């Protein structure tokens, strides 16, 4: 049965996409409560925000680009005295349409009577928008979300306009039946003293109070008000009033258990994980899936940018510039794109590119800047230098409207969601996904081979999840062992050499162990001198033409007394004869093996640092975005 992207198991959708939505209905002033709730989940997205307050039959909408503090500063004292007791709010991580006032949520229908906040991605919003435009609807934003209030209004017109819970619920259900994609929404309607909430693939909870109730993407938003939580499930739609909660699924009322949450606020912001980094490693399957969904519809890859690269010597080639983990992603991208598309790819450290006398023919080379933050000074400088050479430039980044997007001619966004931990994890793996898509997009392989690769790429969220579910226990054991050392080597070959370098960097960054990444065949050219029983070697075995050679390297390394931990596929029995320990990962084609290997090495670095009691989310001397040269 061909694996379809849409067949991805529901568990993959249990991890939220990144925006934060909140709602309040009760007897207290809603505005300060909503703003505080948004502040508590600002880590879910912080490029724009807004609130919609219902008061005495009227309503007020405040929204803008920028943070919640910025919005609060612009609210005059009088606004706070509005006294509205029902409100919804949103803090945004932009995916469709840049951070701006018009793109900020809440979004309204044409008459401003229906307001919606949304977390997720509506895949078919373009066709819905065209249908609504043809029916006279007017749109003010570039977002996918704005189609929802218009659909609800259109559905509402089919009822007798009685503004009551049942009619609104039916109108929301009817509207949602047109959508494909992920959503968690909260709907406020003028004249109705309640809120309607619904979820599909994005998380949504209800905080239960005394004559007041709360709705939010995440527990932290409500934990200061209540620790009585109802987790809405897939397909649930809820009508929430101050003294009642009605939940329905598949047309029938359902009862959802009210849970008592013992977390502190800090725990809750990390979704119950001890560190953002661990949460973000566990979001790697979701980051893969969201990045795929951003550019893959059916079997069609579309980056939405008009660039072509000819693979022959006379045509364009690609030069990638990046720093740190993004540089290792670019190194892996080179292997992936050259393997799949036979397009020449060169990779340079941005900080070196900037000060080298580069021979660069701008008419033949497309320069790609790989940068999670889109703000790394070295990489921005490299982009500007590439433009001076006359090169076409593309930014591959995670942050909408970041500086890199404003310098580059074109932008491709990874859809990893906000990455709070200083150590890059899910953004790295999302960068690899872009390279797989790019390699297939540029390839000239036969259709059957293309589809075979595409089907395997669609299985990567599941492969990544299998590492998290099945390898984690074993990895924690090896992490405890590794944590006792002060030096380590990571080795790999081919497409997994960059992964070995990334594994070494991750371990260095957060555990402060001096780890070096090396080509497996290179250790014998000098570094062998450092091998002792105190220098464990983590070796990635790639199931390709380098496998035997790497086994040979293991033998040489073992002969010098160094402990060897292999990262190898399930079912590879041969490797056990050459190493001390094996961390098993799911089987894939060699070209896709960086995905499971990366998840395993991110977990290894995390658990090793934890065993050493390190400060994981904010390692010493480091910053999330290096905006200085
Ligand atoms: C990776 O874990 C580090 N935080 C660092 O190497 C980072 O990858 C580098 O500074 C580049 O950042 P960028 O991707 O935002 O440009």
Structure report:
This protein has 629 residues and is an alpha/beta fold. The protein has three domains: 18-269, Aminohydrolase, N-terminal nucleophile (Ntn) domain (Glutamine Phosphoribosylpyrophosphate, subunit 1, domain 1, 4-Layer Sandwich), CATH 3.60.20; 273-458, Glucose-6-phosphate isomerase like protein, domain 1 (Rossmann fold), CATH 3.40.50; 471-629, Glucose-6-phosphate isomerase like protein, domain 1 (Rossmann fold). 34% of the residues lie in helices and 22% in strands. It has 19 helices and 27 strands. The strands form five sheets. Strands 3-2-4-1-10-9-11-15 form an eight-stranded antiparallel beta sheet. Helix 10 links the parallel strand 18 (317-322) and strand 19. It starts with 19 loop residues before the first strand and ends in an 18-residue tail after the last helix. The protein binds 2-deoxy-2-amino glucitol-6-phosphate. 2-deoxy-2-amino glucitol-6-phosphate (AGP) binds next to helix 10.
């Amino acid at each position: 049965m061909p694996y379809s992207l849409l067949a991805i198991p529901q568990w993959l959708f249990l991890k939220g996409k990144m925006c934060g939505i909140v709602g309040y209905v009760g007897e207290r002033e809603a505005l300060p409560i909503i703003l505080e709730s948004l502040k508590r989940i600002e880590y879910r997205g912080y490029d724009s925000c807004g609130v919609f307050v219902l008061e005495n039959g009227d309503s007020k909408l405040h929204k803008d680009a920028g943070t919640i503090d910025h919005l609060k500063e612009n609210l005059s004292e009088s606004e706070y005295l509005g006294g509205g007791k029902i409100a919804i709010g949103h803090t945004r991580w932009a995916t469709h349409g840049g951070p701006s006032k018009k793109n900020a949520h809440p979004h309204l229908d044409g008459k401003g009577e229906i307001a919606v906040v949304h977390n997720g991605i509506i895949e078919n919003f373009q066709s819905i928008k065209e249908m609504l435009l043809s029916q006279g609807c007017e749109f003010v934003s570039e977002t996918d979300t704005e189609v929802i209030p218009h659909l609800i209004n259109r559905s509402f017109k089919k009822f007798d306009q009685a503004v009551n819970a049942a009619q609104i619920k039916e109108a929301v259900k009817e509207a949602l039946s047109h959508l494909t994609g992920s959503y968690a929404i909260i709907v406020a309607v003028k004249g109705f003293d309640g809120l309607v909430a619904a979820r599909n693939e994005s998380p949504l909870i209800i905080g239960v109070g005394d004559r007041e109730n709360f709705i939010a993407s995440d527990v932290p938003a409500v934990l200061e008000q209540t620790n009585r939580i109802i987790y809405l499930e897939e397909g649930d739609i809820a009508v929430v009033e101050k003294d009642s909660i009605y939940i329905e699924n598949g047309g029938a009322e359902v009862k959802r258990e009210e849970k008592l949450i013992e977390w502190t606020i800090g725990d809750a912001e990390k979704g119950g994980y001890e560190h953002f980094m661990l949460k973000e490693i566990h979001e790697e399957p979701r980051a893969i899936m969201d990045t795929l969904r951003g550019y893959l519809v059916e079997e069609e890859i579309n980056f939405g940018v008009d660039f072509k690269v000819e693979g022959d010597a006379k045509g364009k080639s690609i030069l990638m510039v990046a720093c740190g983990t993004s540089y290792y992603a670019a190194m892996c991208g080179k292997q992936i794109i050259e393997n799949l598309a036979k397009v020449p790819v060169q990779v340079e450290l941005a900080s070196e590119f900037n000060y080298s006398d580069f021979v660069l023919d701008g008419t033949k080379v497309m320069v790609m800047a790989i940068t999670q933050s889109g703000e790394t000074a070295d990489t921005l400088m490299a982009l500007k230098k590439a433009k001076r050479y006359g090169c076409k430039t593309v930014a591959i980044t995670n942050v909408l409207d970041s500086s890199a997007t404003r310098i580059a001619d074109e932008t491709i966004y990874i859809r990893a969601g906000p990455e709070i931990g200083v150590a890059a994890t899910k953004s790295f793996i999302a960068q690899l996904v872009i390279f797989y898509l790019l390699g297939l997009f540029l390839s000239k392989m036969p259709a059957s081979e293309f589809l075979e690769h595409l089907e395997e790429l669609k299985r990567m969220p599941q492969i990544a999840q299998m590492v998290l579910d099945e390898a984690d226990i074993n990895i924690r054991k090896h992490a405890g062992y590794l944590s006792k050392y002060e030096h380590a080597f990571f080795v790999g070959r081919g497409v997994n050499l960059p992964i070995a370098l990334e594994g070494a960097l991750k371990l260095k960054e957060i555990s402060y162990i001096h780890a070096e990444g090396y080509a497996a065949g290179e250790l014998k050219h000098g570094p062998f001198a450092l091998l002792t029983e105190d220098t464990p070697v983590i070796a990635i075995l790639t199931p390709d033409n380098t496998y035997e050679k790497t086994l040979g390297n293991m033998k040489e390394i073992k002969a010098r007394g160094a402990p060897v931990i292999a990262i190898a596929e399930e079912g590879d029995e041969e490797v056990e004869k050459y190493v001390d320990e094996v961390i098993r990962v799911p089987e894939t084609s060699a070209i896709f093996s960086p995905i499971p290997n990366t998840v395993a090495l991110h977990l290894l670095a995390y658990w090793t640092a934890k065993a050493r009691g390190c400060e994981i989310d904010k390692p010493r001397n480091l910053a999330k975005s290096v905006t200085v040269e």
